[in-house]
Amino acid sequence: MAVDLGNFIYQYYINPIIYDTGYNPVNTITWAIILGLSLFGVVKLLDKLDITVDEIFIFAVSPYIFVGGSLRVVEDAGIVAAPLKYLLITPLIYFFIFFVCVAILILSKGLERVSRIKYYWPFALGGVAWSIVNIWLLYTTAKSFNATIFVLILSVGAALSFLVFVVARLLNFTLLKDRVNAFVLGGQLLDATATSFGLTFLPYAEKHVLPNFLIEATGTAFVMYPLKLIVTIPVLFIIDEYLKGESRNLIGIVKLAILTVGLAPAIRDTLRMTLGI
User: Fold this and answer.
1) Is residue 132 over pLDDT 50?
2) Which of 12, 111, 114, 212 is exposed most, by the fewest CB atoms within 10 A?
3) What is the C-alpha separation between 61 and 45, in angstroms, rounded?
4) Under DSSP, is residue 78 helix (H, G, I), strand (E, B) or coil?
5) How many CA atoms lie within 13 A of 23 on its CB side?
6) Which among 169, 207, 181, 250 is positioned nearest to 72, based on CA atoms?
7) What tens digit of pLDDT does each residue of 162-187 get?
8) What are phi and psi of 166, to 5 degrees?
9) Contact between 188 and 232 (Cβ < 8 Å)
């Protein structure tokens, strides 16, 4: 029994991290449950720090999403050796960035108490500085730089996001008039763009269970666009409509989690294609 349990843990949890083979149904469900439970812990922590998860906070934490995406590329490029590189593979990277992010946030709140500087300025700048270090590491070790694919992915992702928002305004769809909702959907559409281009025009592979199933079923990676719209918009609607009586921080953290699971992979995929990694 103990041997079977050990094999199970290695097969579904440890080996996907060590060999970076991606997700399977077992670890996908497990990480989703852990993420859901963690959100409540984060809400309690932010309440204790007297921080409101509003538009300003979400934009201030956004550089750390870039940190996560770029750190995955640092691991992809082989810049960091084992065992430290395992910290840069999901889901361990989320815990690593979370604890560093919380430490910087607590320091920023402490600075706010002894000065007139609002906490979100040093907090955001910490993420920006970390992102710059990651980009410098990648740029100085990269063997190539494809500016065309970089501009193309960003342009297509931005254009499609803009089109969706214009249509939403013409239809008076108030959900996307909220800037946080628009940011969340934009991050998901950028992820759809990076995935579609990487799988269609370049030799990359999808590692997530549901997208991989749908891509194989439809025969095209561009199925990611309707998938993102069909999933993200109803989820945002449910959050705004049925959780509006709940804690504002809980609503904000849930939206931040949705933004992260879309924008972080989009950043990683775009940087990989740009640098030929």
Assistant:
1) yes
2) 114
3) 15
4) coil
5) 18
6) 207
7) 999 999 989 999 999 899 999 999 99
8) -65, -45
9) yes
